[in-house]
Amino acid sequence: MAQLQRIDIFPVKSLDGISLPTVRLLKSGALEGDRRFALIDAQEKYINGKRHARVHHLRSSFDLMTRTLHLHNGDGWHAGSFHVDQERDRLQEWLGEFFGFAVRVREDPAAGFPDDTDSPGPTMVSTATLQEVASWFPGLCAQQIRRRMRANLEIGGVPPFWEDRLFGPPGVTVRFLIGEVEFDGVNPCQRCVVPPRDPIRGDIYPNFAKIFAQKREETLPAWAERSRFNHFYRLAINTRLPPDQSGKTICVGDQITIPRGAVSASL
Hints:
The structure is a single chain. Strands 11, 12, 13, 15 and 16 form a five-stranded antiparallel sheet that branches. Strands 2-1-10-9 form a four-stranded mixed sheet. The chain has 267 residues and is α+β, with helices and mostly antiparallel strands. It is globular. It contains four helices and 16 strands. The protein has two domains: 3-31 and 114-264, M1 Pyruvate Kinase, Domain 3, CATH 2.40.33; 37-107, no CATH class. 15% of the residues lie in helices and 28% in strands.
């Protein structure tokens, strides 16, 4: 039985995530609190792992109740705690010192700063998928793959790549439910330059993308819509939330179901 096994949000885009037992869905489709904050440079571009590998050396934790961000660099000698409202200037100064250039902290409580603005719902992957992918890379475990892929929702009780059932041909979404909340599965998520990097140290696993794409093609399940793979460096799915589902909540342990005939040509 497919069920929701894990919920992760990333309060600050590109920084460390936190696990929650339950979460509310925003009108945009995003999980409340996910990527609510973003780090921006002087050119108004995101400071993320795609553009700045030094992000991987920055450890963080965020207290949702007190709105306090705790930071330290990889070796632990430089640390600080900041209230993101009352100490925004001090926080930006600390980050500027860490990165070596001016940093601004932006907040969007209504929609956050999603990676995919066309499908801003939570990304989903199964635990078995993470375990399978880890088996492709000697020395890596499922937890390390989890940190590299940074999905929001993790599905338990299913075989590897079960989530590939949740998207259809181009132009078609697949309606599914987590508990009583409806979602539309859109497409398999294209990966970037971040997964090959160790999420703590930042060093690159040799030929990660090449190995990944080869093994992904070899293990593509029969239920996956192959036409959605113009290349095989894809994992997890992107989703959207129907407008009438905003404000609802999902919880760890919720059953995940695909109603019979649950497809729609809505893209």
